[in-house]
Write a structure and sequence with these properties.
Distance between the termini: 84 Å
Number of domains: 2
Low-confidence stretches: none
Largest sheet: 5 strands, mixed
Oligomer: single chain
Helix content: 55-70%
Number of strands: 9
Strand order of the largest sheet: 2-9-8-4-5
Mean pLDDT: 82
Length: 438
């Protein structure tokens, strides 16, 4: 029957489902809100871990998942509140019926005003029903909008990386890639303008001819062919158009509002890195107690060191490996296998002996690049690859403090880099600590 959508019996079934859809809406909203609240903290934890480990692509995926969770949670909570108000209004109507303005015995001025502004109670119920149904439907439509934005940015990034940024395809990669990126950027701007103006580009005869190729291509990139009927069903309704206009500024206000925070100083805020006069909690392992705390860059065990040695842990990420490759270009492989790949596919066919030899050279180079200083004195250090207490991969070394004086000191982790054939030393991290041996 569903194949013949013009069949009167099918239309009757749809009408019946529409009248009873509020029950399904509440059921789905309840389960969805519970699932979203349950998923938010694990997703945030995974994002923090991926971001700390330098997995930018994975971190970006988790950001999109978190944004989708927030949007759905906000909309569905609003839907549940309005549905509750709607059910309450229905129950009140069963008890007292319509609003009897005469029985209120107000003055003629207030009675006329209330009749005009408040109106019929049935109209109020009908408007609540419209709000609830539209908000429930648009909640999931907004997620498609988020995906559309992500896929568009992803398509531009892929073209830039695999065509323009690929030296093996020069000069053809740039000849093909640059016009494609320009086309994508123009198409993205036109699609946003058309979205924000609710189809203004489609209404102008000469503009619509220019916009149509962009619209056709972006319908596949953004997967809009999957949800396009929902969009146009909103836009052909006056109430849907008004709500669509309100949503964008509401979300902009929410994003801007969430950026506000209470500032207690003109010179010190929450996002300060450790230095000679600042101690950031993220640099001390004993302060990383919560499940959401991860090593971001470099750590030492504590602010107060009572042992005659100091452990220094440096997180391993792409930046560290790039520093090693820049200092020793011979270590850089012909094919960089970092990123997503399957362990079932053998990409780098090195023997165990060759691999072990390269690893030793890699670690020697790393120890040449990265040095540990206490105050201004360089100490012997030899990093090895290991895992932290947080199960994060990194490099660890131990520095002898037996000849160090008691009191405050500054641990400096530096790295060498070759810039214009000159070797320069720059700071990676500066962490203050106090040395009081037992």
């Amino acid at each position: 029957m569903s194949q013949d959508y013009n069949n009167p019996a099918f239309k009757k079934l749809l009408k019946k489902l529409q009248e009873e859809s509020w029950q399904l809406e509440l059921l789905i909203s309840g389960f969805a809100i519970f699932g979203l609240f349950s998923a938010y903290t694990p997703l945030k934890l995974l994002y923090i871990e991926a971001n700390a480990d330098g997995n930018r692509l994975i971190a970006f995926i988790y950001v999109i998942a978190l944004i989708s969770c927030v949007i759905l949670t906000f909309n569905l909570l609003l839907h549940v509140v309005l549905r509750g108000l709607w059910i309450g209004a229905l129950g009140l109507r069963y008890v007292s019926g319509e609003i009897d303005y005469e029985s209120l015995n107000y003055s003629e001025k207030f009675t006329n005003y209330l009749r005009k502004r408040v109106g019929s109670f049935d109209r109020y119920i009908a408007r609540l029903e419209n709000y609830c149904s539209v908000i429930f439907a648009i909640s999931f439509l907004l997620i498609f909008y988020v995906f559309a934005f992500v896929f568009t940015i992803g398509a531009i990034s892929l073209i830039a990386n695999f065509l323009i940024g690929n030296d093996e395809l020069d000069p053809y990669g740039k000849i093909i890639g640059i016009p494609l990126v320009i086309f994508m950027v123009i198409g993205m701007l036109l699609a946003f303008i058309d979205f924000a103006t609710q189809g203004w580009l489609k209404k102008k005869k000469w503009l619509s001819k220019i916009y149509f190729p962009f619209y056709w291509i972006f319908s596949f990139i953004t997967l809009s062919f999957l949800y396009r009927p929902l969009v146009y069903n909103f836009l052909d309704n006056k109430f849907g158009r008004r709500l669509s206009f309100l949503l964008l500024p509401i979300y902009i206000i929410l994003i801007v509002g969430s950026s506000y925070q209470n500032k207690t100083s003109n010179y010190f805020n929450r996002s300060l890195n450790s230095s000679e006069i600042i101690g950031d909690a993220s640099n001390y392992e004993d302060l990383l107690t919560d499940d959401t705390d991860f090593i971001e860059k470099v750590t030492i065990p504590s602010k107060v060191i009572s042992t005659n040695y100091l452990k220094v842990f440096m997180l391993f990420n792409d930046i560290v490996e790039d520093d090693v490759f820049d200092y020793n270009p011979s270590l850089k492989p012909e094919e960089d296998i970092r990123g997503f790949s399957s362990d079932m596919i053998i990409i780098n066919e090195l023997s165990w002996k060759e691999r072990d030899s390269i690893r030793k050279v890699y670690m020697q180079t790393l120890n040449d690049v990265y040095k540990v200083k206490i105050d201004s004195i360089e100490h012997n250090s030899e990093f090895i690859l290991t895992q932290s207490q947080k199960k994060q991969k990194g490099f660890e070394t131990y520095v002898d403090l037996s000849n160090l004086k008691k009191g405050k000191h500054l641990m400096n982790l530096t790295r060498k880099r070759i810039h214009k054939k000159d070797t320069q030393t720059i700071y990676v991290a500066r962490i203050p600590f106090w040395y009081f041996p037992n």
